[in-house]
């Protein structure tokens, strides 16, 4: 019988990571990593990483490629809604869940200044929302008409008032704007329906954005990519939650951002007088653009000072170290003191990102993480800190009793050393059994060696440790 393998690749901003999965049993056969070659053609780095990972596979083996990407800045999304507290907020949540970096949120009737701000944000996709089904249609139609007259050319996903959405799309299409109509993200107050809009955003990302970023000279890369990386990761996180059988959370500390994902099991918390008018996503993601290990390192110190997380006398030397890291993102930190600074920055970034995720800021509602059973750490700094260093970072999150949010009562920390969340997300639809087995082996199971393999992924013994710590995609 011919063996069948899935080649799962994450083309990130800094590194391209490949995992080869045996589709028969979900076993991780090999991994490799190469620098992302965005300056020339991302296929150069991707093909090299795949060659590294597939060396030694049987020549008769059948292979299929599954690729996600955040190279070139990933997916930049703008949201334009009826009013900021409800429909624009709902659109913001949906955009984050679709793997986008939300670069602009506008509300109300679009005017000259609003259009200028929208253009300045340079989105790849615009999510146009507004009005519940059968509710107000005037703002949605006004904004569609204003964009059409302004010769807007960025693809638009219309996911507002179902009765008015076809007319809004017609206004845009009549002026040559690429437009896709989706079901309303907020069909009624308090009811958030993200799935159709998320799928539409993913489709637009694949059809228009990947090719438009000019990451590769030919059409092959655009054909290979199946999702934005955060979208694939959130799918993997949701599948992991099913295996765990309860709430879980993930913190991904990168060079430019710190992302937090959480999946909550819907229960009686879904209703009640305190439920947000824009609804609540049980699968959610927040992106903190001021928290990172390299480019955003100074923001970590500034935010930590604002949260009163720093010890007396700590702020000045830590800020100086953060400025040095931001000024030279490729700097190699090899000494123990420097590595201790990196772990401290990572712990602060993780704690602050979790506080924001749980409290609900920047258009996202508060989330109750008290019942989180599994806390997964991801990102270069955690993967390469070793078990003790990674445990130190995650312990800071679980011990944050002064953050104004209820910390998980009995969460088990684990590190995604082998990049399996993105791989499982890519495999979840075409090969759900293999995806589930992969997650069980490396994250959901109880065997510690599986969660922290003794052999690091191929490509991780290169001297460019700083670049690996700067993984942000």
How would you describe the overall organization of this protein?
There is one protein chain. This protein is α/β, with parallel strands linked by helices. The chain folds into three domains: 4-72, 2-Layer Sandwich (Nucleotidyltransferase, domain 5), CATH 3.30.420; 74-212, Cobalamin-binding domain (Rossmann fold); 229-469, no CATH class. The protein has 17 helices and 15 strands. It has helices at residues 42-54, 84-97, 112-120, 138-149, 165-173, 195-212, 220-224, 229-244, 297-306, 315-327, 336-359, 380-383, 386-398, 420-427, 432-444, 448-451, 465-469; strands spanning 4-11, 15-22, 28-35, 62-69, 75-81, 100-107, 125-128, 156-158, 179-181, 225-228, 248-253, 258-263, 283-288, 374-378, 412-415. The chain has a five-stranded mixed sheet with strand order 3-2-1-4-10, sandwiched between helices. A five-stranded parallel sheet has the order 6-5-7-8-9, sandwiched between helices. Strands 13-12-11-14-15 form a five-stranded mixed sheet, with helices on both faces. Helix 4 links the parallel strand 7 (125-128) and strand 8 (156-158). It is globular, with a radius of gyration of 22 Å. The model is unreliable at 268-275 and 447-473 (pLDDT under 50).
